[in-house]
């Protein structure tokens, strides 16, 4: 007796057409064996077949059972069946009564069914139950693909951060993400082979052109379907050389292309090319020479200055790892850092960089140079296990460097990978006196919840955020509001990738506190960086105490009313920041856009306004009087002034003190009326 196992389940899940296909495969297999083994076989019931074998030998019976299952597998492959039938078999010696013999065989058949169930035999060898797509078993059966003569492209799809999503929302919702990914892929590759390859990865094999455009449409459609920015598709492709490579080799190269994307959140797709090939060729060299590069100083920190937008002074530097190899030349950090992360060696690099930073600070102090606050990156992998804080602290204490001079930058993606470790590290670092900066905000993972749930000292806006603002009006509005939001949440903000004067002016206008980019300097080795600062004789470098002072000033948000925390200010009034020194010299640091419009109306700019205040003794004395009075008042002081025949109201309150300097925020209320 031969029973098609779980036929009812096949019909219920996949439909009766699939069930009929299963019966056809088993029937064809039995028919083939009737010729080879001289069997008699017939369909006995819904899912059962009756077979008569002319042999009394147990060995022959077991051999026929094995041959039947092999024949079923062969026919399923030839038919490219989505379901591989599983059969249970029971047998008995034919006695005087056929009926009693069938009953005995039937009893043994059900014992075999229980045995199959206990061994957890899979009903569907080729089908993924969650998505309904074919699975890796099907893909590995190369005879379905290698008969094609056209050029094939293998596409490797990876749903990034699905594990984190499952952890937060549960596996049922995670399965929903998998189904939507399959749906998005099938829309563009309807007649092509797509399989669910592993847990969160898919493979498509296509023989049609236009792969890049189709991939981008899939990614866009997927994002629309799931409505969750923490999960997205990362994709690599490879043109399969079918005569020289197996399908597994082709899939591996498409996977390599996907992995080459690394932490680059601006790109979600790459085709395997010479650059990718060279990367993996270099991988072995990097891993085998990493320790030597550390020992011989081939890897060294390069320093890039950070500028205070309010004053134009140097506010600090970032240390960036550079590998200058005597054999390979310059090895890009975009090449060696992902390789070290994959090999879990990046922590050694980061601690080495910290050691180099501490040595630079100590060396500079020894030769009478000012101490420069320096930021450096910790990889998200460093945070795993919760031991990195103690390791960083051990290096710092070795050189007795004040933690205020070391700024720790952590990528936003770390929060989606190991939230508990991330939160613990932030808290411990800040308790020890380190500043923790959120790096690359706006690069792809960004979520406003991260700003709400964590208290960073500084948020660094990614360079691509700024670049988009030059071509997209909406992006300029967005970056303005993001800067305002960050400051209202009590955090400071720095923008990377500043390259043009127009970008500098825009960022100043919206109140971005610090700027970093090629407009000011490229990353430089230690000696060149310190010579760069020496040229200014350090006149334009702020000390730590000055930095604290200017941080208080820069915290003012030009889109909110500094005189009324509950008002909806939105930048519609002329707002400025002015500093008074010991000689009562007034320096205007910041004017919002509305103030600049008013000044342009009167044909004034910052410099001309400062010169007028210096020359007009009466006006200067009146302004100083109002500013002084504001220091002794719990509320903002408001007073009338006459400026070149025009009456206006000056409202002022102090922001910060440093030595003999005092800085105030002020508003010119009635000039608004004059403009109407």
TrEMBL record:
This is Signal transduction diguanylate cyclase. It comes from Ligilactobacillus equi DPC 6820. Residues 1-129, 150-275 form the GGDEF domain. CDD domains: EAL (cd01948), GGDEF (cd01949). The lineage of its organism: Bacteria, Bacillati, Bacillota, Bacilli, Lactobacillales. It comes from the Bacteria. GO terms for molecular function: cyclic-guanylate-specific phosphodiesterase activity. Transmembrane segments: none annotated. Residues 283-537 form the EAL domain. Pfam families: EAL, GGDEF.
């Amino acid at each position: 007796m031969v029973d098609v196992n779980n036929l009812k389940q096949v019909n219920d899940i996949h439909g009766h057409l699939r069930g009929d296909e299963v019966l056809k495969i088993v029937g064809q297999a039995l028919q083939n064996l009737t010729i080879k083994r001289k069997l008699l076989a017939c369909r006995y019931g819904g899912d059962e077949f009756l077979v008569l074998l002319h042999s009394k030998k147990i060995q022959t019976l077991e051999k026929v059972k094995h041959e039947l299952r092999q024949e079923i597998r062969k026919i399923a492959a030839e038919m490219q069946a989505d379901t591989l039938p599983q059969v249970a078999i029971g047998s008995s010696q034919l006695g005087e009564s056929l009926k009693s013999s069938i009953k005995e065989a039937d009893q043994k058949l059900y014992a075999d069914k229980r045995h199959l169930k206990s061994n957890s035999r899979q009903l569907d060898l080729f089908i993924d139950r969650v998505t309904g797509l074919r699975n890796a078993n099907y893909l590995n059966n190369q005879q379905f693909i290698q008969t094609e003569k056209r050029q094939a492209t293998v596409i490797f799809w990876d749903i990034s951060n699905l594990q984190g999503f499952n952890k937060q929302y549960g596996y049922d919702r995670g399965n929903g993400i998998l189904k939507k990914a399959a749906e998005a892929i099938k829309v563009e590759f309807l007649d092509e082979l797509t399989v669910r390859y592993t847990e969160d990865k898919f493979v498509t094999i296509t023989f049609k052109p236009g792969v890049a455009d189709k991939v981008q449409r899939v990614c866009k459609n997927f994002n629309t379907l799931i409505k969750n920015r923490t999960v997205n598709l990362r994709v690599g492709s490879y043109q399969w050389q079918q005569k020289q490579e197996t399908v597994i080799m082709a899939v591996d190269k498409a996977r390599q292309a996907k992995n080459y994307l690394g932490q680059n959140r601006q790109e979600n797709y790459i085709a395997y090319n010479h650059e990718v090939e060279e990367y993996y060729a270099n991988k072995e060299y990097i891993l085998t020479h990493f320790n030597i590069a550390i020992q011989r100083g081939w890897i060294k920190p390069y320093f890039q200055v950070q500028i205070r937008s309010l004053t134009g002074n140097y506010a600090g530097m970032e240390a960036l790892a550079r590998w200058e190899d005597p054999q390979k030349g310059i090895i890009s950090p975009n090449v060696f850092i992902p390789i070290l992360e994959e090999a879990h060696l990046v922590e050694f690099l980061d601690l080495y960089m910290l050691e180099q930073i501490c040595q630079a600070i100590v060396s500079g102090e020894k030769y009478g140079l000012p101490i420069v606050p320096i930021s450096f990156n910790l990889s998200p992998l460093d945070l795993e296990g919760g031991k990195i804080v103690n390791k960083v602290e051990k290096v710092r204490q070795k050189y007795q460097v004040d933690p205020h001079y070391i700024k720790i930058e952590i990528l936003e993606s770390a929060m989606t990978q190991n939230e508990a470790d991330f939160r613990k590290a932030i808290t411990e670092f800040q308790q020890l006196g380190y500043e923790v900066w959120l790096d690359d905000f706006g690069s792809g993972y960004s979520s406003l919840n991260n700003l709400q749930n964590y208290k960073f000292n500084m948020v660094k806006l990614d360079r691509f955020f700024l670049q988009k603002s030059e071509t997209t009006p909406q992006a300029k509005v967005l970056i303005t509001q993001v800067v305002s939001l960050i400051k209202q949440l009590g955090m400071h903000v720095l923008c990377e990738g500043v390259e043009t004067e127009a970008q500098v002016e825009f960022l100043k206008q919206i109140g971005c506190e610090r700027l970093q980019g090629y407009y000011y300097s490229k990353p430089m080795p230690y000696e060149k960086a310190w010579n760069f600062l020496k040229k200014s004789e350090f006149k334009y470098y702020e000390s730590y105490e000055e930095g604290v002072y200017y941080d208080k000033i820069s915290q003012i948000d030009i889109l909110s009313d500094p005189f009324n925390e509950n008002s909806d200010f939105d930048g519609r009034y002329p707002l400025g920041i002015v500093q008074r020194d010991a000689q009562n010299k007034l320096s205007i640091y910041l004017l919002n856009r509305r103030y600049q419009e008013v000044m342009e109306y009167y044909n004034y700019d910052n410099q001309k306004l400062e010169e007028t205040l210096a020359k007009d003794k009466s006006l200067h004395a009146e302004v100083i009087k109002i500013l002084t009075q504001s220091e002794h008042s719990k509320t903002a002081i408001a007073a009338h002034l006459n400026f070149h025949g025009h009456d206006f109201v000056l409202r002022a309150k102090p922001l910060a003190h440093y030595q003999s300097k005092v800085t105030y925020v002020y508003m010119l209320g009635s000039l608004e009326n004059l403009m109407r």
